[in-house]
Design a protein that fits this description.
mainly alpha; 64% helix
Length: 283
């Protein structure tokens, strides 16, 4: 029995050329720095004085995302890929209000993971950005957090595209593939919560926390001490409830609809003929 070989990075609906890959790498490094600024930059004081870096990051991050998206689409995104991207972005935007804000349950990430898995890291990155942007407009959720949500979601979609197609010499398909995506969905659920907490942590904690002062951010404090305080802060306020709800939602949705959705996406790839010369290979 033969199987269709998985698409290479150059054959997928949104191919990643070396320039695009370089820009994504730069954005990832810069983005991680912008998320982790509280560990290296003192937060502005309540009086408004102090380092303005956090506000510069909020203004700069959307520009970097736009530049990367422009680079990815430099050669033009295929009309069929653009249509699929538009449909999935609209579906994700419509799904998100069904769960967001209810015990941490998110209904947007499972589709992003499945699409990134089939259509590749470039498509997953773009879909993560467009899904969050569209849902923010739909739910009036536009704010300084939006570019951070866009980038974190884009990383989730991109990471799904980089998951291996073969493990221990065997094709990762069927139940094994669903299991792989479930594990990935759980991991990114907790990482998303932690990294989203990190950038705004200084603005919601402080000496006024009283009994919870040990969770508070120390402006300009030692790296290890602030990191320890943040770990406890996110564990108590987010990981135990919100992030776990997100992980459970990802698991349930991927288990229930993962296999048929993956099959539907792969049929779409074949019929759209993004890579007409792709060969059949023996597993």
């Amino acid at each position: 029995m033969t199987r269709r070989a998985p698409l290479t990075l150059d054959d997928r609906p949104v191919p990643l050329e070396w320039k695009s890959a370089l820009m994504l790498t730069v954005l990832t490094v810069a983005g991680l720095g912008m998320f982790a600024w509280p560990l290296f930059v003192a937060a502005p004081s309540p009086s408004g004085l102090g380092d303005a870096s956090p506000f510069i990051f909020v203004a700069l991050l959307p520009l970097l995302i736009f530049l990367v998206l422009a680079q990815i689409s430099e050669k033009g995104i295929d009309a069929k890929a653009l249509a699929i991207l538009g449909v999935l972005s609209a579906i994700n935007a419509a799904l998100r209000p069904l769960g967001a804000g209810t015990g941490g349950i998110e209904t947007v990430f499972f589709l992003l993971i499945l699409a990134g898995r089939v259509f590749g890291p470039g498509f997953g990155f773009v879909l993560g950005c467009t899904s969050m942007f569209a849902s923010a407009l739909l739910t009036a959720g536009v704010g300084p957090w939006m570019p951070f949500q866009m980038l974190a979601s884009a990383w989730i979609g991109m990471g799904a595209g980089f998951l291996p197609n073969r493990l221990f010499g065997r094709w990762v398909r069927g139940k094994a593939e669903v299991a792989l995506l479930v594990v990935y969905g759980i991991v990114v659920a907790y990482l998303f919560g932690a990294i989203m907490n990190l950038w705004f942590w200084p603005f919601v904690t402080g000496p006024s926390m009283g009994a919870d002062a040990q969770l508070a951010y120390i402006p300009g404090g030692p790296l290890l001490e602030n990191l320890t305080r943040f770990a406890w802060f996110t564990l108590i306020t987010s990981t135990a409830v919100w992030d776990t709800g997100r992980a459970v939602a990802n698991t349930v949705l991927i288990v229930l609809v993962g296999a048929p959705v993956l099959a539907a996406f792969r049929r779409t790839v074949r019929r759209a003929v993004f890579a007409p010369d792709i060969e059949f290979v023996q597993p």
